[in-house]
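chain below, 174 aa
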Amino acid sequence: QNKKNPYTSMKKAILSILIALACQASWAQSAHSLYRAFKNIKGVENVFIPRLVVAGTRLIGDMDTETRMILNHIHSIRIMNLEECNDDVRKNFLKKAEMLNTTGYHELISARGERERTLIMLKMKDDRVKEVVVLDAEPKECSMVIIKCNITPEMVNKLVDIAGKGNINTKPKK
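prediction:
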């Protein structure tokens, strides 16, 4: 009568695996918690650009209509640069970036090297991009950008073009 149910061992094994996975997931940080963890460390350059300032940039400079429209749908921008930090801080950032929890995001670009991590993620809702996260972590240069927005996926390409040119002046000079 003291026979062991053969499924008991299987249930225990599955439960153990689920607990281990839950612990692993709890150690992984979200993009926002990673940003918060490093933004106040000595040597970190941290910039927050609120919607009002983003909207104000539409009024200055030469930019095309599409760029103005994109800026109209950007709610805020957070930029963090760890270039001036000591090596230990950057190593720690790289380590945490490796464990970044990307649940809920669509990975647009993801590249991992031996000692580097590059990631561009989109958070979508109803066919609209609500958030763009750009992460670049290397031993000597680490940076992170979080853009809260309400744009179409097509606008992301234009946003990447603007960022790649290093300015918002995308209209050709006459």
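The radius of gyration is 21 Å. Residues 6-27 form the longest helix (22 residues).
thats it, cya
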